[in-house]
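Support reply, case 0932

Customer input (verbatim):
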Amino acid sequence: MNPREQACMLALLASQLSPSKINTILAVWCKKRGQSLEEFFEAEPQQWSKACRLEEKDVQKLHQVRETLTAQGFLLEQLQHNNIAMLTLLDSAYPRLLKELRDAKQKQDLTQLPPALFYAGDPTILSRQTIAIIGSRNASATSLAFTRAASAYLASQGANIISGFARGVDKTAYEGATSTAQGYTTIVLPHGICKLSKTQMRELQPRIEAGHVLLLSQFYPNDAWTVGRAMERNKVVVGLAQSVIVAEADIKGGTWDGAQKALQQNRKLYVREVKDDDSLPGNTRLLTMGAVPLSWPGDDLWREMDVVLHEGQRVCESQQIMAEAPQAEQLRLIS
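Our regenerated output:
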Protein backbone atom coordinates (compact mmCIF):
# COMPACT_ATOMS: atom_id res chain seq x y z
CA MET A 1 0.00 0.00 0.00
CA ASN A 2 1.18 3.51 -0.74
CA PRO A 3 1.16 6.09 2.11
CA ARG A 4 -2.20 7.55 1.08
CA GLU A 5 -3.81 4.11 1.14
CA GLN A 6 -2.20 3.38 4.49
CA ALA A 7 -3.63 6.61 5.92
CA CYS A 8 -7.06 5.53 4.67
CA MET A 9 -6.55 2.14 6.34
CA LEU A 10 -5.72 3.91 9.60
CA ALA A 11 -8.96 5.85 9.24
CA LEU A 12 -10.92 2.61 8.80
CA LEU A 13 -9.39 1.24 11.99
CA ALA A 14 -10.00 4.51 13.83
CA SER A 15 -13.70 4.26 12.95
CA GLN A 16 -14.02 1.35 15.42
CA LEU A 17 -16.02 -0.65 12.91
CA SER A 18 -15.86 -4.38 13.65
CA PRO A 19 -13.14 -6.38 11.89
CA SER A 20 -15.80 -8.20 9.88
CA LYS A 21 -17.19 -4.93 8.50
CA ILE A 22 -13.74 -3.57 7.65
CA ASN A 23 -12.89 -6.87 5.98
CA THR A 24 -16.11 -6.63 3.99
CA ILE A 25 -15.06 -3.19 2.74
CA LEU A 26 -11.66 -4.57 1.73
CA ALA A 27 -13.20 -7.62 0.04
CA VAL A 28 -16.03 -5.86 -1.77
CA TRP A 29 -14.69 -2.38 -2.50
CA CYS A 30 -11.02 -3.17 -3.07
CA LYS A 31 -10.91 -6.80 -4.24
CA LYS A 32 -14.24 -7.20 -6.04
CA ARG A 33 -14.66 -3.67 -7.42
CA GLY A 34 -10.94 -3.04 -7.87
CA GLN A 35 -11.12 0.41 -6.30
CA SER A 36 -8.78 2.00 -3.78
CA LEU A 37 -9.51 3.03 -0.20
CA GLU A 38 -8.80 6.61 -1.24
CA GLU A 39 -11.65 6.29 -3.76
CA PHE A 40 -13.78 4.77 -1.02
CA PHE A 41 -13.42 7.84 1.17
CA GLU A 42 -14.00 10.13 -1.81
CA ALA A 43 -17.30 8.38 -2.57
CA GLU A 44 -20.69 9.46 -1.28
CA PRO A 45 -21.89 7.74 1.92
CA GLN A 46 -24.81 6.26 -0.02
CA GLN A 47 -22.29 4.33 -2.12
CA TRP A 48 -20.67 2.91 1.04
CA SER A 49 -24.01 1.69 2.28
CA LYS A 50 -25.11 0.20 -1.03
CA ALA A 51 -21.85 -1.48 -2.02
CA CYS A 52 -20.84 -2.84 1.38
CA ARG A 53 -24.26 -3.22 3.03
CA LEU A 54 -23.36 -0.95 5.93
CA GLU A 55 -25.83 0.21 8.53
CA GLU A 56 -26.53 3.89 9.13
CA LYS A 57 -24.49 3.92 12.35
CA ASP A 58 -21.50 2.50 10.42
CA VAL A 59 -21.86 5.13 7.72
CA GLN A 60 -21.87 7.85 10.39
CA LYS A 61 -18.64 6.50 11.90
CA LEU A 62 -16.99 6.47 8.49
CA HIS A 63 -18.20 9.98 7.75
CA GLN A 64 -16.61 11.19 10.98
CA VAL A 65 -13.22 9.57 10.38
CA ARG A 66 -13.13 10.85 6.79
CA GLU A 67 -12.45 14.25 8.35
CA THR A 68 -9.36 12.85 10.09
CA LEU A 69 -7.45 11.65 7.01
CA THR A 70 -4.86 14.40 7.36
CA ALA A 71 -4.31 13.47 11.02
CA GLN A 72 -3.97 9.81 10.00
CA GLY A 73 -1.24 10.86 7.58
CA PHE A 74 0.66 12.52 10.44
CA LEU A 75 0.24 9.37 12.56
CA LEU A 76 1.59 7.29 9.67
CA GLU A 77 4.69 9.52 9.55
CA GLN A 78 5.15 9.04 13.29
CA LEU A 79 4.92 5.27 12.91
CA GLN A 80 7.45 5.28 10.09
CA HIS A 81 9.80 7.47 12.15
CA ASN A 82 9.63 4.84 14.90
CA ASN A 83 10.26 2.02 12.39
CA ILE A 84 6.73 0.65 12.75
CA ALA A 85 5.25 -0.83 9.59
CA MET A 86 1.76 -2.02 8.65
CA LEU A 87 0.45 -5.07 6.81
CA THR A 88 -3.14 -5.40 5.66
CA LEU A 89 -5.24 -8.28 4.40
CA LEU A 90 -4.67 -6.86 0.91
CA ASP A 91 -0.91 -7.38 1.21
CA SER A 92 0.61 -10.65 0.01
CA ALA A 93 3.00 -10.57 2.98
CA TYR A 94 0.13 -10.79 5.49
CA PRO A 95 0.86 -13.92 7.61
CA ARG A 96 -0.25 -16.99 5.72
CA LEU A 97 -1.18 -18.92 8.86
CA LEU A 98 -3.92 -16.41 9.68
CA LYS A 99 -5.28 -16.44 6.13
CA GLU A 100 -5.48 -20.21 6.12
CA LEU A 101 -8.01 -20.45 8.96
CA ARG A 102 -10.64 -21.65 6.48
CA ASP A 103 -12.17 -24.69 8.11
CA ALA A 104 -15.94 -24.69 7.62
CA LYS A 105 -16.43 -24.54 11.36
CA GLN A 106 -14.43 -21.33 11.48
CA LYS A 107 -16.10 -19.45 8.62
CA GLN A 108 -17.47 -16.87 11.05
CA ASP A 109 -14.04 -16.48 12.69
CA LEU A 110 -12.47 -15.87 9.27
CA THR A 111 -14.38 -12.61 8.94
CA GLN A 112 -12.85 -11.61 12.29
CA LEU A 113 -9.26 -11.77 11.02
CA PRO A 114 -7.36 -8.58 11.87
CA PRO A 115 -7.72 -6.22 8.88
CA ALA A 116 -4.23 -4.89 9.62
CA LEU A 117 -1.15 -5.79 11.66
CA PHE A 118 1.32 -3.21 12.93
CA TYR A 119 4.81 -4.45 13.63
CA ALA A 120 8.31 -3.48 14.69
CA GLY A 121 11.16 -5.85 13.93
CA ASP A 122 11.83 -8.53 11.35
CA PRO A 123 8.58 -10.18 10.18
CA THR A 124 10.49 -13.14 8.71
CA ILE A 125 10.76 -14.41 12.31
CA LEU A 126 7.27 -15.80 11.65
CA SER A 127 8.70 -18.08 8.96
CA ARG A 128 10.39 -20.04 11.74
CA GLN A 129 8.61 -22.83 13.54
CA THR A 130 6.40 -20.84 15.93
CA ILE A 131 5.29 -22.17 19.31
CA ALA A 132 2.85 -20.30 21.54
CA ILE A 133 3.24 -20.56 25.31
CA ILE A 134 0.21 -19.31 27.23
CA GLY A 135 -0.91 -19.33 30.83
CA SER A 136 -2.21 -17.46 33.83
CA ARG A 137 -1.15 -13.97 34.82
CA ASN A 138 -1.02 -15.25 38.41
CA ALA A 139 0.71 -18.55 37.70
CA SER A 140 2.39 -20.61 40.41
CA ALA A 141 6.16 -20.77 40.82
CA THR A 142 6.07 -24.30 39.39
CA SER A 143 4.25 -23.16 36.25
CA LEU A 144 6.69 -20.28 35.78
CA ALA A 145 9.68 -22.60 36.18
CA PHE A 146 8.16 -24.91 33.57
CA THR A 147 7.56 -21.96 31.23
CA ARG A 148 11.09 -20.63 31.56
CA ALA A 149 12.67 -24.05 31.00
CA ALA A 150 10.46 -24.93 28.04
CA SER A 151 10.78 -21.58 26.26
CA ALA A 152 14.55 -21.43 26.73
CA TYR A 153 15.03 -24.94 25.36
CA LEU A 154 12.70 -24.46 22.38
CA ALA A 155 14.30 -21.11 21.53
CA SER A 156 17.78 -22.65 21.75
CA GLN A 157 16.66 -25.10 19.05
CA GLY A 158 15.66 -22.26 16.70
CA ALA A 159 11.93 -22.01 17.41
CA ASN A 160 10.12 -18.67 17.57
CA ILE A 161 8.30 -18.37 20.92
CA ILE A 162 5.11 -16.32 20.65
CA SER A 163 3.20 -14.92 23.62
CA GLY A 164 1.05 -12.05 24.76
CA PHE A 165 3.59 -10.23 27.00
CA ALA A 166 1.25 -10.06 30.00
CA ARG A 167 2.68 -10.68 33.45
CA GLY A 168 3.04 -14.25 34.60
CA VAL A 169 3.46 -16.98 31.99
CA ASP A 170 3.56 -14.63 28.97
CA LYS A 171 6.41 -12.49 30.29
CA THR A 172 8.29 -15.55 31.56
CA ALA A 173 8.04 -17.15 28.11
CA TYR A 174 9.60 -14.01 26.65
CA GLU A 175 12.36 -14.03 29.27
CA GLY A 176 13.11 -17.70 28.69
CA ALA A 177 13.26 -17.26 24.91
CA THR A 178 15.58 -14.27 25.13
CA SER A 179 17.84 -15.91 27.72
CA THR A 180 19.58 -17.81 24.94
CA ALA A 181 21.86 -15.86 22.63
CA GLN A 182 20.08 -16.87 19.41
CA GLY A 183 16.54 -16.93 20.82
CA TYR A 184 13.67 -15.55 18.74
CA THR A 185 10.34 -14.40 20.08
CA THR A 186 7.17 -12.67 18.90
CA ILE A 187 5.11 -10.46 21.19
CA VAL A 188 1.44 -9.87 20.35
CA LEU A 189 0.04 -6.85 22.17
CA PRO A 190 -3.47 -6.47 23.64
CA HIS A 191 -3.47 -2.75 22.74
CA GLY A 192 -2.15 -0.36 20.11
CA ILE A 193 1.55 -0.54 19.37
CA CYS A 194 2.03 3.09 20.43
CA LYS A 195 0.67 2.37 23.92
CA LEU A 196 3.75 0.53 25.16
CA SER A 197 5.42 2.41 27.98
CA LYS A 198 8.81 4.04 27.49
CA THR A 199 10.27 1.53 29.95
CA GLN A 200 8.93 -1.39 27.95
CA MET A 201 10.24 0.05 24.68
CA ARG A 202 13.69 0.64 26.17
CA GLU A 203 13.77 -3.02 27.18
CA LEU A 204 12.59 -4.31 23.82
CA GLN A 205 14.34 -1.95 21.39
CA PRO A 206 17.84 -3.51 21.43
CA ARG A 207 16.43 -6.98 20.74
CA ILE A 208 14.09 -5.62 18.05
CA GLU A 209 17.03 -3.92 16.34
CA ALA A 210 19.11 -7.10 16.65
CA GLY A 211 16.38 -8.97 14.76
CA HIS A 212 15.42 -11.32 17.60
CA VAL A 213 12.12 -9.77 18.74
CA LEU A 214 9.08 -9.10 16.58
CA LEU A 215 6.47 -6.80 18.09
CA LEU A 216 2.92 -7.10 16.72
CA SER A 217 -0.43 -5.39 17.29
CA GLN A 218 -3.72 -5.82 15.43
CA PHE A 219 -5.26 -2.67 16.88
CA TYR A 220 -5.30 1.00 15.93
CA PRO A 221 -1.92 2.31 17.17
CA ASN A 222 -3.35 4.48 19.97
CA ASP A 223 -5.98 2.01 21.24
CA ALA A 224 -5.76 1.32 24.98
CA TRP A 225 -5.95 -2.08 26.69
CA THR A 226 -9.40 -3.57 27.24
CA VAL A 227 -10.52 -7.05 28.23
CA GLY A 228 -12.11 -7.47 24.80
CA ARG A 229 -8.87 -6.57 23.00
CA ALA A 230 -6.91 -8.97 25.20
CA MET A 231 -9.27 -11.77 24.17
CA GLU A 232 -9.01 -10.79 20.49
CA ARG A 233 -5.22 -10.79 20.82
CA ASN A 234 -5.34 -14.44 21.94
CA LYS A 235 -6.72 -15.48 18.53
CA VAL A 236 -3.64 -14.07 16.85
CA VAL A 237 -1.20 -15.61 19.35
CA VAL A 238 -2.50 -19.13 18.69
CA GLY A 239 -3.32 -18.44 15.04
CA LEU A 240 0.32 -17.65 14.23
CA ALA A 241 1.63 -20.80 15.95
CA GLN A 242 1.98 -24.35 14.70
CA SER A 243 1.82 -25.62 18.31
CA VAL A 244 0.42 -24.24 21.57
CA ILE A 245 1.69 -25.04 25.08
CA VAL A 246 -0.47 -24.30 28.13
CA ALA A 247 1.52 -23.86 31.33
CA GLU A 248 -1.38 -23.12 33.66
CA ALA A 249 -5.09 -22.58 33.00
CA ASP A 250 -8.35 -22.16 34.82
CA ILE A 251 -11.64 -23.17 33.19
CA LYS A 252 -12.36 -19.55 32.28
CA GLY A 253 -10.45 -16.46 31.26
CA GLY A 254 -7.92 -15.63 28.58
CA THR A 255 -5.78 -18.79 28.74
CA TRP A 256 -8.82 -21.03 28.59
CA ASP A 257 -10.16 -19.01 25.65
CA GLY A 258 -6.79 -19.24 23.88
CA ALA A 259 -6.65 -23.01 24.37
CA GLN A 260 -10.17 -23.37 22.96
CA LYS A 261 -9.15 -21.27 19.95
CA ALA A 262 -6.14 -23.55 19.44
CA LEU A 263 -8.38 -26.61 19.35
CA GLN A 264 -10.82 -24.89 16.97
CA GLN A 265 -7.95 -23.93 14.68
CA ASN A 266 -6.59 -27.50 14.68
CA ARG A 267 -3.37 -26.46 16.39
CA LYS A 268 -1.46 -29.14 18.29
CA LEU A 269 -2.18 -28.45 21.97
CA TYR A 270 0.20 -29.45 24.77
CA VAL A 271 -0.61 -29.00 28.46
CA ARG A 272 1.54 -29.26 31.58
CA GLU A 273 0.42 -32.36 33.42
CA VAL A 274 -0.35 -32.03 37.12
CA LYS A 275 -0.62 -34.76 39.73
CA ASP A 276 -3.13 -32.89 41.88
CA ASP A 277 -6.32 -32.80 39.80
CA ASP A 278 -7.78 -30.02 41.93
CA SER A 279 -4.84 -27.61 41.64
CA LEU A 280 -5.16 -26.72 37.96
CA PRO A 281 -8.68 -27.55 36.76
CA GLY A 282 -8.11 -25.99 33.35
CA ASN A 283 -5.09 -28.17 32.65
CA THR A 284 -6.97 -31.28 33.76
CA ARG A 285 -10.00 -30.44 31.62
CA LEU A 286 -7.89 -29.73 28.53
CA LEU A 287 -6.15 -33.09 28.89
CA THR A 288 -9.53 -34.82 28.81
CA MET A 289 -10.29 -32.90 25.59
CA GLY A 290 -7.35 -34.37 23.74
CA ALA A 291 -4.40 -32.16 24.70
CA VAL A 292 -1.00 -33.89 24.91
CA PRO A 293 0.47 -33.98 28.44
CA LEU A 294 3.91 -32.56 29.25
CA SER A 295 5.77 -33.74 32.34
CA TRP A 296 7.02 -31.28 34.96
CA PRO A 297 8.96 -31.54 37.10
CA GLY A 298 10.82 -34.50 35.65
CA ASP A 299 13.49 -35.58 33.22
CA ASP A 300 11.02 -36.39 30.43
CA LEU A 301 10.37 -32.75 29.53
CA TRP A 302 13.37 -32.48 27.19
CA ARG A 303 12.38 -35.60 25.29
CA GLU A 304 8.82 -34.24 25.07
CA MET A 305 10.09 -30.86 23.86
CA ASP A 306 11.91 -32.65 21.06
CA VAL A 307 8.62 -34.30 20.12
CA VAL A 308 6.97 -30.84 20.06
CA LEU A 309 9.72 -29.59 17.75
CA HIS A 310 9.50 -32.62 15.49
CA GLU A 311 5.72 -32.36 15.16
CA GLY A 312 5.96 -28.62 14.57
CA GLN A 313 8.52 -29.15 11.83
CA ARG A 314 6.21 -31.63 10.13
CA VAL A 315 3.42 -29.04 10.19
CA CYS A 316 5.77 -26.36 8.83
CA GLU A 317 6.69 -28.58 5.90
CA SER A 318 3.01 -29.22 5.21
CA GLN A 319 2.32 -25.49 5.27
CA GLN A 320 5.18 -24.89 2.85
CA ILE A 321 3.48 -27.23 0.39
CA MET A 322 0.25 -25.26 0.84
CA ALA A 323 2.15 -22.05 0.16
CA GLU A 324 2.83 -23.28 -3.37
CA ALA A 325 -0.89 -23.02 -4.20
CA PRO A 326 -1.91 -20.40 -6.80
CA GLN A 327 -1.47 -16.84 -5.54
CA ALA A 328 -5.09 -15.91 -6.21
CA GLU A 329 -6.17 -18.60 -3.75
CA GLN A 330 -3.64 -17.45 -1.15
CA LEU A 331 -5.02 -13.91 -1.28
CA ARG A 332 -8.67 -14.89 -0.88
CA LEU A 333 -10.02 -12.85 2.04
CA ILE A 334 -13.42 -14.24 2.83
CA SER A 335 -14.72 -17.65 1.83
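We compared this against your earlier run and they match. Two observations from our side: Strands lie at 85-88, 116-120, 130-135, 160-163, 184-188, 213-217, 243-248, 268-272, 292-294. The domain at 119-323 is CATH 3.40.50.450 (Rossmann fold). Please reopen the case if you see a mismatch on your end.
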